[in-house]
What we know:
Elements: H1 2-16, H2 21-36, H3 42-53, H4 60-73, H5 76-88, H6 94-110, H7 113-130, H8 135-145, H9 156-165, H10 169-198, H11 208-217, H12 219-233, H13 239-257, H14 263-296, H15 299-309, H16 314-329, H17 334-351, H18 356-372, H19 378-387, H20 391-414, H21 417-426
Amino acid sequence: xxxxxxxxLLAVVLLVAGFEMLMVLGIPTLAIKAGFFERLPDLIxxxxxxxxxxxxxxxxxxxxxxxxxxMGRGQIAGxxxxxxxxxVGHARGGIGYTTIGGAMGFGSVSGxxxxxxxxxxxxxxxxxxxxxxxxxxxLGLIVSSAETALLIPPSITLIVYGWITGTxxxxxxxxxxxxxxxxxxxxxxxxxxEARRTGVQGDPRATVAQIWAAFKRAGWALGMPVLIxxxxxxxLFTPTEAAVVSVVYAILIESLIYRSLNVRTLIEAAxxxxxxxxxxxxxxxxxxxxxxxxxxxxIPNMLIDLVEQVxxxxxMFLMIANVAFIIAGMFVDPNSIQLILVPAxxxxxxxLGIDPVHFGMIVAVNVTxxxxxPPFGLDLFVASSTLQKxxxxxxxxxxPFIIVNLLVLLLITYVPGIATLVPDLLL
Length: 427
């Protein structure tokens, strides 16, 4: 337990001092090695670092990120949004529902919330303002809607959780479908209240011909989620193979059909994706070593004993876990949150009989909350850069959505059937 306290204190000091997350994870990990496991051979350390990320499952991350970057630079995002608008845009506040549905659609082919913010923000923000949504609400809606990308497959967050815990990625993806839908419906309810309160109207109702034209225009774009999800649940390919298919499909459609990609933009997308993946995999490598030290120090066993001593059942444990994730999410990026907390909390959760898929959904919803929680929610800064708005303005508009997110978190936490029903039916 002393080790856990020292890790936490050192990490907090580094975080407050403004160090990058690579250093926040790396320095405490190396300090633990030098101070507590100095006799552990360096060769074992190197093997743990390289062996932890040398898994085919993790190949899904760079491929899905590359596909998201390609689609963000191309036309798939805009065509999906156009179809959603044709279907629901006539309702009061319809462009708000279009924002939610478009973000969910793009999230279902990208798995990345920052990519969804960047791709959808510049398309939908002007339309939301044109429809007379308040500026703060429009900003909050764009940022929050993008968080469904972390729940709806192919979610990179769920891939990382499955890698850490050994939980079936297919089962997690199935659970993410229902949880992501619940989150989207909750945001839609808030949008309906805002539209009625401020008098926002909808678009003219699209005719059958216009809807059919939107379907035809989005036909190739719709092929992406159908191919990925249908292939995974139909047993045609694994999630990792689906990631490769998504890249090939994006390149073919954006370059040959939509003609929105050329060699230059393809190289630029590859370069940006390579930088993103270098950061992610360095964090995963350090997280592997930190998890190994946590296991050697028997911290999970200590936590299990503590839970038994205070007679904390699943209800109390899940509340404590949620508080820990919420606080961490205010300061730490989503991958680092999982690398720090999941190895210690997951064994406790399973010892209390909590379903691994259910716990994964709790983790994922907490991560989505962390992405938009001040002061350091990553997507707040992505939106600021994309929309050329001060971060303070985006934070001012995010609070109603944070409250909705917390309510959904409580619902998912204490009604596990929402998370486990779809996996049980499909698998």
